[in-house]
Amino acid sequence: MPFRLRRNHLFHIFLFLLLCILLYSNILQNGWHLDDFGNILYNTPLHITYLFPETLLQTFYAHPESTGKLYRPVANVTFAINWFFGKDNPVGYHIVDIFIHFLTGVMLHLSTLLLLNTPALKYQLRSEQKEIDIALLTTVLWLCAPIHTSAVTYIVQRMAQLAALFSVSAIYFFLYMRLVKSKKKQIVSFIFFICCVFLAIGSKENAILLFPSILLIEGIFFSLFQKIIFDFQKEKLFLIFFCVVVVGIYFICCNFIEKQVNNYGHRNFTFFERILTEPRILLFYLFQIFYPSDSTLSIAHDITLSTSLFSLWQTLPAIVCCIGSIIFCFCQIDKRPLISFAVIYYFLNHLIESTILPLELIFEHRNLLPSLFLFLPIAAFAVYIINKKRLVALVVAIACTGFLLQSGIATIERNRDWKNAGTLNEDAVSKAPYDARAKLNLAGWYVEQKRFKEAVALCEQVEQLVGREASVNTTVPIALNLKGTIAYEQGQVEKSAEYFRKAYALRKDYTAVAEKLIAILVELKCYDEALTIISERYIQKSDAKLLLLKASILLRHKKPAESLAAYHQARPFYPDLPLITAGQAKALIMMGYHDRATQLLNWATQQSDPVARLLQIENLLLVDAKQKAMLLLNQLIQIVPLSKLLEDLDATQKDAFQIPVEKKLLRQAMLDISMSIFSSQTKEDAL
User: Fold this and answer.
1) CA gap 668, 665 in Å, rounded
2) In this predicted structure, what is the pLDDT of residue 124?
3) CA angle at residue 431 from 425 to 433, to 5 degrees?
4) 193 in Cβ contact with 172 (< 8 Å)
5) Angstrom distance (rounded) from CA 142 to CA 138
6) Distance CA 111, CA 243 (A)
């Protein structure tokens, strides 16, 4: 490559970095949102304190709802490293997300350059400078697209970002492998390609579509489809192969599809309503991409469901438009490879999240990967016009500049909406006034701000919006959860429990409600009811956290032998957790095995477990070793302030996971030791 072109490449990479900083620097002070809490802030396996291989390995299984289950390991490792350096400060997470967006832009730029050098495009005889211009414009348009704010600004969507980064990187290495002549370079490229494939899938499961995407690239740009179509013998083989694949997919997937149809019970739409509605949403995504305005972007949208082909007049035209576009592009592969690839790639990479799976209908971050090459044919057309059609070149240049400026402004404005949960959800409610989820999210923020009247009013509006059984089972439990939280904050514990009971009765898989209900039942000493809920939850989902909860409640219920068994059952999932050791010690204390309890507590206190220290003192007091207990308590007060010890004591009563202690006994001991210290200080002052 000539020095001038190499220098241009470096300049373009610097330009991409500068552009990302300009567009996203205003997100550094933005806070946490929605799924950030469950996936990062409350996901304790990610909260590592050492960068050892074994601690990083445990993050592979940091599933937010089922600890011990492999879950998007690549993304989770990056969250864990962020936590190691910055804990819950979102600034570091935002910096990493901006850098990932920049890297994705760089790899898109490089992949586009290679695509323009494939056999299908060689006949167009573009100069190298024009290819660079096309790649530059494609990348800049993609980087500036305001629809990507929901992936870059929303921290947990780093999963989607990494899937896009490694997918486009895999495409780059595949193209390089196909175009390079050296066998050694082909082998190295293939190794990098395989690594990127695994990294992409390890970031988010929809990256599995890399395989058909690579087949699409091979077919369009390396003439595989043309060879199959125009060679009669290969056409027959292709037909036979196609029939076998279709029959195989039918027998393998029919049961899978049937399961998905039956998994819509918690949604306010059915399987067929989703299938009919999604084509309209896919076209709406395109409108959002090519009409860059903050006014079209929101975390929630009022989507009217298509209940039949003719229930909304837009339903059938949208289906025809989507299917027709795909068919047209397949027919135009030979004549218009760029636009054919861009359109088919877009629909192909929406296949997982926008078809049969019972996911939410619409989320803008889903477009990060499918939109990668959407701007490529537009950029190629613009560069062609600017270089060939001198009369309209100025108009096209002005149009591109205006589009980029509008995209940049819309991106910056949209980032402001993500400043905090209040700004984000107030914006969502203003843009989607009939969306129940937006109102509930805003109500949740009002609860955090202690604006209880406004929160209750929104919850009641949501209950009035409900119009079908599925909505009753999804949105109403969330409203009841918020009402229960408000009642508890206002000191109405019994009323709070009733709200949580109603919510749990409507939706047994609602983790937040189940946990709050269990905590309140423990506070009300309704242990049998709490244990029943835990058993129901464990049947639904074998989560080891439930075993810890069960063991703690059994201790409160004066059933130490059963508690000991539950802690033993949880031990394989948490082999080094001091909480389990302390819980087992408490059970042994209750059973009268004080010596065995002492051995366990000695180990637990070495791990700096605060409750273990209190249990150690409790154990000594129960065996009439008061002098030794007071000595230990005096040493503890020298390290931990008395106020902190009293907080830990109260926490053991309120936190259902914590091991219960003999509060009166320990409080009296603390009172005695504090009086002794005060008396000693008084004598010293007198002397």
Assistant:
1) 5
2) 65
3) 85
4) no
5) 6
6) 33
Given a contact cutoff of 8 angstroms between Cβ atoms, the answer to whether 143 and 15 are in contact is no
Residue 448's alpha-carbon distances to 325, 421, 443, 486, in angstroms, are 47, 10, 9, 10
Angle (nearest 5°) at CA 549 between 548 and 551: 65
Residue 258 pLDDT class (50, 70, 90 cuts): low
Neighbours of 495 (CB within 10 A): 15
Question: Is residue 662 exposed (0-12), middle (13-18) or buried (19+ Cβ within 10 Å)?
Answer: buried
State the CB neighbour count (10 A cutoff) for residue 600.
Answer: 25
Burial (CB < 10 A; 0-12, 13-18, 19+), residue 556, is middle
Rounded Cα distance between 130 and 379, Å, is: 10
DSSP at 70:
-
Q: For residues 384 and 161, give the distance between their C-alpha atoms in angstroms, rounded to a whole number.
A: 31
Tell me the domains of the chain and their CATH numbers: 3-32+88-414 (no CATH), 435-507 (1.25.40.10), 576-687 (1.25.40)
**DSSP codes of every residue in 492-548:** -HHHHHHHHHHHHHH-TT-HHHHHHHHHHHHHTT-HHHHHHHHHHHHHH---HHHHH
List, for residues 632-650, the tens digit of each pLDDT value: 878 777 777 777 777 777 7
| pTM of the predicted structure, to 2 decimals | 0.78
Quote the CA–CA distance of 206 and 164 in Å, as a whole number: 10
Rounded Cα–Cα distance for residues 361 and 269 (Å)? 9
- Indicate if the pLDDT at residue 562 is higher than 50: yes
H/E stretch holding 160: helix 158-179
Give dist(CA 583, CA 589) in Å, integer.
10
Interval 64-87: pLDDT, tens: 877 678 889 999 999 999 999 989
Q: Which amino acid is at 496?
A: S
Collect all residues with Cβ–Cβ distance below 8 Å to 392 and sequence separation of at least 6: 385
Q: Sign of torsion, CA 399 404 408 414? A: positive
Place of tokens 């296949």: 351
In Å, what is the CA distance from 137 to each residue of 21, 24, 132, 383, 387?
18, 19, 9, 9, 14
Instruction: Give the max Cα distance, the chain.
Output: 111
Look at the chain and count its residues: 687
